[in-house]
Amino acid sequence: MANEKPIQLSPNSLNLFLECPHCFWLDKNLGIKRPPPYPYALNSAVDSLLKEEFDTYRAKNLPHPLLKENGIKARLFPNQKLLNQWRNNLAGIRYFDEVLQATLFGAVDDVLEFSDSKIAPLDYKSTGSTAANVYDRFQLQLDTYTFLMEKNGYKTPRKGYLAFYIVDKSRGFIDRLPFRKEIVEIETNPSDIYAIFQDAVKCLREPTPPEHSQDCLFKKWLDGAKKFN
């Protein structure tokens, strides 16, 4: 069997599997990873600061201005201890499947709670782009969080939220980085997540990796490099 160690997959893992099962197999089974992108240290710093800010409103049981300004009738999930666990990259919100003998987990940024006790994921996104672009991987991320919440016994509105903090380049710098804030509501559909999870686990348990996806940029790079060998 290709993978003897416990299988634990995240939304990023599922996204890699959908992009290229060959790269996914190498990453999870052999630790051979794609070359890493340029480190987004500024994005990580903004993410940490936003968690502090949202937690301050949570501790005071106050609505966050971003929610009020956008008419979102929900409060910040009040259980800080549980949220800290769900945020932890080594823990997260988890689901172990007895049939697959594998775990799916995700580290959420934040959670909203509605008056009917339903909860929904809230993810922070900071960007230097001029617009709040919703990529397919964001949809997959929110779909997976919804799946995990429901598997953990919570009811959801089948919605997720992306809080975009967009650098406002029109206002200059002057020792501060101004942001324009937007929040986007996304309809979530967790119905395909289990099938993707199942296929990804099956892929990892194959003795050899599958073929690269035809659109895989790393395959194209390798094919180009072979011409000079």
Task: Describe what you observe in this structure.
With 229 residues, the chain is of the alpha/beta class. It has a single domain (7-224), classed as Lambda Exonuclease, Chain A, CATH 3.90.320. Helices cover 39% and strands 20% of the residues. The protein has helices at residues 11-19, 21-30, 41-59, 65-69, 80-87, 136-151, 193-204, 217-226; strands at residues 7-9, 75-76, 93-97, 102-106, 110-113, 119-127, 159-167, 179-187. It has a 5-stranded mixed beta sheet with strand order 2-5-6-7-8. A 3-stranded mixed beta sheet has the order 1-4-3. Helix 6 links the parallel strand 6 (119-127) and strand 7. Helix 1 crosses helix 6. The protein is globular and about 60 Å long. It starts with 6 loop residues before the first strand and ends with a helix.
Parts with pLDDT < 50 across at least 5 consecutive residues: none
Structural class: alpha/beta
Please identify the top-level CATH class: Alpha Beta
Please identify, by name, the CATH architecture: Alpha-Beta Complex
Largest sheet descriptor = 5 strands, mixed
Cα distance spanning the termini = 33 Å
How many alpha or pi helices? 8
Tally of distinct domains = 1
Q: What is the mean pLDDT?
A: 92
Biggest sheet, spatial arrangement of strands:
2-5-6-7-8
